[in-house]
Amino acid sequence: MSNTPENRPLAELVTGLVGDISGLFRKEINLAKAEASEKMSHALTGVEALAAGLVFAIAAVGVLLAAVVNGLTAFLVARGFAEHNADAISSVVVGVIVALIAWAMISKGLSALRSNNLNLDRTTNSLRRDAQVLKERT
User: Fold this and answer.
1) 122 or 64, which is more confident?
2) Cβ of 81: how many Cβ atoms within 10 Å?
3) Which of 33, 86, 124, 133: disulfide with 81, CB 3.0–4.6 Å?
4) How far is CA 51 from the centre of its chain?
């Protein structure tokens, strides 16, 4: 008697099917791992470029703020202020304005990060509904 698929016992067919399904899942998981690794590598390249860009942007802001201080100093000197007084006033004015802008941005960022803003309300409600349905059906 040959052991063709038509003549194999049901237990052997089910065992083969379970083995095939578990092999398929392993292959899918390996594919997902490889794809995630590739995507992460690509994302890290983007993060590196973003970080370098941010460093240059911070440097550019510093240079521009220095230029604003120098321009305001020149304006005040032209209006009759002594140069050292004009430089001090310019530095304070620009520093206070930048500090106020920074404070506003930090406050906005902190309020966005408050714990109640990070709650996963829709997911929590969905999981509660799923748990309730499972309880009702069992």
Assistant:
1) 64
2) 16
3) 86
4) 13
Domain ranges of the chain: 10-137
DSSP 3-34: --TTTS-HHHHHHHHHHHHHHHHHHHHHHHHH
Strands (E), the chain: none
Tell me if residue 61 falls in helix, strand or coil.
helix
Q: How far apart are CA 73 and CA 46, in angstroms?
A: 40
CA distance 62 to 93: 15
Nearest to 20 by CA among 9, 32, 12, 31: 12
Distance from C-alpha of 135 to C-alpha of 138, rounded to nearest angstrom = 5
- Contact between residue 93 and residue 72 where contact means Cβ atoms under 8 Å apart: yes
Largest CA distance in the chain: 113
pLDDT at 1 over 50: no
Q: How many CB atoms lie within 10 A of CB 89?
A: 15
Q: Which residue has the tokens 């194999």?
A: 8
Sign of CA dihedral 116, 118, 122, 125: negative
Predicted structure pTM score: 0.56
